[in-house]
Amino acid sequence: MGDLLVVGSVALDSVTTPFGKVDEALGGSATYFSYSASFFTRVRLVATVGSDFPEDHVRLLRDRGVDVTGLQRSAGGRTFRWVGEYGYDLNEARTLDTQLNVLATFRPALPDALRRVPYLFLANIDPELQLDVLRQMAERPRLVALDTMNFWIQGKREALLRVLREVDVITINDAEARQLAGEANLIRAARAIAGMGPRVVVVKRGEYGALMLAEDAFFAAPAYPLESVFDPTGAGDTFAGGFMGYLASEGASDGASMRRAVVYGSVMASFTVEDFSLNRLFRLEQPEIAERAAAFQDLMQVNGRGPEERGARGR
Amino acid sequence: MGDLLVVGSVALDSVTTPFGKVDEALGGSATYFSYSASFFTRVRLVATVGSDFPEDHVRLLRDRGVDVTGLQRSAGGRTFRWVGEYGYDLNEARTLDTQLNVLATFRPALPDALRRVPYLFLANIDPELQLDVLRQMAERPRLVALDTMNFWIQGKREALLRVLREVDVITINDAEARQLAGEANLIRAARAIAGMGPRVVVVKRGEYGALMLAEDAFFAAPAYPLESVFDPTGAGDTFAGGFMGYLASEGASDGASMRRAVVYGSVMASFTVEDFSLNRLFRLEQPEIAERAAAFQDLMQVNGRGPEERGARGR
After folding, report:
1. Between chains, do A225 and B228 touch, taking CB under 8 Å as contact?
2. Does A88 touch chain B (CB under 8 A)?
3. Which end of chain A is more exposed for a tag (fewer CB within 10 A), N or C?
4. Checking DSSP bridges between strand B169-173 and strand B200-204, what pairing results, if any?
5. Which domains can be identified in chain B, with CATH numbers?
6. Inter-chain contact A220–B216, Cβ cutoff 8 Å?
7. CA-CA distance, B181 to B190, in Å (whole number)?
8. How confident is the model over A101-140, as pLDDT tens digits?
9. Would you call A142 an interface residue with chain B, using a CB distance cutoff of 8 Å?
10. What are the beta bridge partners of residue B48?
11. At what angle do helices A186-194 and A174-181 cross, to 10 degrees?
């Protein structure tokens, strides 16, 4: 089992969906990622919050075994805030307000103990900071993955291309993959992105699942079929947490393990969207993960066992 | 191997996509369906054309072994015509013109020889005609599937609900599934449609693949990853042709066979969209189907063989 370091954002999110709303709930890319990954391996978090950040939120992470010694608390600063809403098409968030606050001057400083972790996830922050984190590592991690978004693709393209040359895996949503590659066809877009550096490209497609290009072959995983989706916020980072958490727990980085990692990422994301903020993850029990992973494989199984063999639950 | 009867439309399509255009090319739901299914089983076609329909088109079907004795030719009538275009988002067609012509007065009359076929596909036509065809069967086929569209869901809802009570399988696209069920969540929509009669609901999602609810379990298949999609016209009917053709060839209608049928349907659809009209299918060789089906299963395989075992084609 390998330690997993994540550098990203911790936020207070205010989110409205057709099914309800939350105000200043726990959020942020590094939060969703580390909570999700904590079900698989030991996670070390580097991020920044203001003095207004509730201590209860930190305790929730610590209770899951997340190492929060790298969480910088800026005296007098305010925590990063995001306000967004979703319509019935839950695939796309509309940002109503972003207050960077302490995130605007964040410069990740890795404690010595974290400079040799074998698994590193650079969550969605300024690519210059992502590059800076990579430079601070005392040795090249076994596996480095990165997430990004339209804001950086458009505004910090050069820095993004620089850091992309040094990572193994990129996780990115489909619209952003097309934008980054400048290519409408998603398959060609994924190949173009692989040409920018990462040997593995994971395209997140929301309710349509994930598509991975690894070792010159595509792997497609559907999203778990859910009858109730309340809030898609954090689904992508939760996916990445399950994906990287699984790989770190196995000490693996080969193509076959990556496929299983996509399944575990999808499983974790499917829980997150069942409630607002991290609420569903807070009440998640370890056995539920294995149960849903099994159901997930059945969902994808071409030569599936019929209901007769499974025990009569069909008609 | 069971005979497969399809009742639907034969058309002359004029289609523009960002990649080119065709004028009055061979099209129609029954055409795509029967050509696709002909790679699996013996297909019998019931449809109508005008006296302007090129004899060459009929020969193309006959050369594939499709029984065209049920193709009615209306003396003096004009063949059904459809004019449509697609933007870079190839998921949705924009209809520019529809001329029903001989289809407006079409009343399928089944020859005696076709009233006992074990597999029946009611392609996308007026649900009252679909019901009429069912009534003409001398005995209940082993498997009846139907396809429909927004036009009938909106304009002939009662007739559609009546025929739905009598079929085993419905194939329908995702937007139309939501419309038919009056339910935004696709999973709940599929369950609601199953409650209307069909024990199997196959939702076609274009570039996102297909989702099937059968025997109380979901099965999700991705679309085959294509770098070039030229024209999505007919993809759904070609899918249905592969799906029903496979089941008829196996004499099967169980859930496990349905899963393999979805794969063959997806494989056939993936060929169709590689060129305009049925052009790709015209040059399709039987071994290509098995090859792509194998690649397709690899695409979905969680515990896939690594590139080492496949022979080094990775990096």
Report:
1. no
2. yes
3. C
4. parallel
5. 4-300 (3.40.1190.20)
6. no
7. 8
8. 999 999 999 999 999 999 999 999 999 999 999 999 999 9
9. no
10. B72
11. 60
